[in-house]
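[job 4471] stage=fold_predict status=RUNNING
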Amino acid sequence: MIRPYRRHSVDCKHADRGRDWRHCDCPIWADGQLGGVEVRKSLGTRDWQEASQKIIKMEADAKADDGRRGLADAWSDYIDLKRNDQVSDCVLAKYELLRDRLAWLIHQRRAS
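[job 4471] inference complete, writing structure tokens
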């Protein structure tokens, strides 16, 4: 989880209040762990809303890059495995129908 904080400049009159003080115009930095890697870097903004959006994007990108497979790939691999196990065509057709319905449902939820 990454947490934003103000990195107060030397001449900031609120520097003694600590990094959790939000009511000044000092740059916002990110601190925390992302995928097991320590992150401490400037977010390149002084706006809290923009900083929050950048952190959400960083966390989403890290989740997308964590090596997990998509549902469609997992279903295809499972169906291939069952096909190799010589499961009947009727059962394979049911698995494919279920895969297609779930893919449609996921597509509908993402579209709305």
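[job 4471] summary: The first strand starts at residue 2 and ends at 6.
[job 4471] exit 0
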